Each structure stands twice: as C-alpha cells, then as structure tokens.
Amino acid sequence: MTHTILRIPAAKSQSGYSRSTIYLRIAQGLWTKPVSLGPRAVGWPANEIESLNAARISGKTDAEIRELVLALHIKRKALMTMVGL
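Below the sequence we write its predicted structure tokens.
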C-alpha cells in the first residue's frame, strides 16, 4: 500500500480550500493536523484528504467530520505504531 503525502499546494488543489482555510479548519477540528516532513516542511496523507472530501461531498455535518478527523488521527497513530515510530 502506497502512502502519499501531499504538500500544501497539492492539498489546496485536492480540497479546493485556500491555505488559510485549511489551517482554520485544523483549528476548528475539521481537518487533520499536518505531518512533519522536516524542520520547515509539512504535508497531509492523501488518503486523509480523500476521506475529508468524501465526507463533505456526502453532506456530513461538522460534528460528523470532527469524529472523522479523530478517527483519522487514531489510524495515523496506529500506523506509526505498526512501523515502529
């Protein structure tokens, strides 16, 4: 299974959100936190962006999307545990 990480330009393109909106949504709990790629670089797993887009398209409420964000963070931690990080 391939795990692609998208930097901010690709995340903006995939979601249709601006940079400031992505960070606002993170603060609101409606978007996953970025993954650190280095001292000054972050990105988001492509599968998380796809899941968030699908939730918006299907008409999920903000409360349901917050639950999805929590579930995605839990899956991310489980993946990190599996690879030994």
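The two ends are 18 Å apart (CA to CA).
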